[in-house]
Amino acid sequence: MEQVAILARVSTQRQDYERQVVELTDYCQRMNWEVVKVFANKVSGATRNADREEISGLVEYVKEHRLNRVVCLEISRLGRNTLEALKVINYLNENGVSLHIKNYNLNTLNPDGKVNPVASLICTILLEIASMERLTIKERMESAGRDHGAFPSAELIPHEYLTQKRKYAPASARPHSTGEHSSQTVEN
User: Could you tell me the pLDDT band of residue 148, with boundaries at 50, 70 and 90?
Assistant: First the structure.
């Protein structure tokens, strides 16, 4: 039976990684893999590996124990910083440990223990997409903080917006804004 470790991560303290751990544990049982360790943390995927306890713990564990693979739900759980995540993948590969990404059924090592070049390419592309997603989320959050004309909370959203599919423009985009609401209907 192969020995595996689970790697789970969520980005905020409000989130819970338990769903990932349960899903991956069930998956490993179906694959007849023995879960010997779980590494999980609540930390931004952009955080450097050196500052991520679960990554440091995983690296130390791989040094001292024999693992066949590390299983994660999706590549962004490894991180949203391409270079930092690739460092982990390379470290695992160099130590004969395959990273298995469940949602793509992708292994970084072939059954013969050699690096899977197709998986390397796909991982790099997926990590760049994850990095791009992080930047987009960050830009939206910064924009929401700057644009006080946008809906700051659900209580201030006009009822029509919630009940009808219409496009709304922020108050700053209106030619003559006089009302309290921060939006207006834009005709389709």
Answer: low
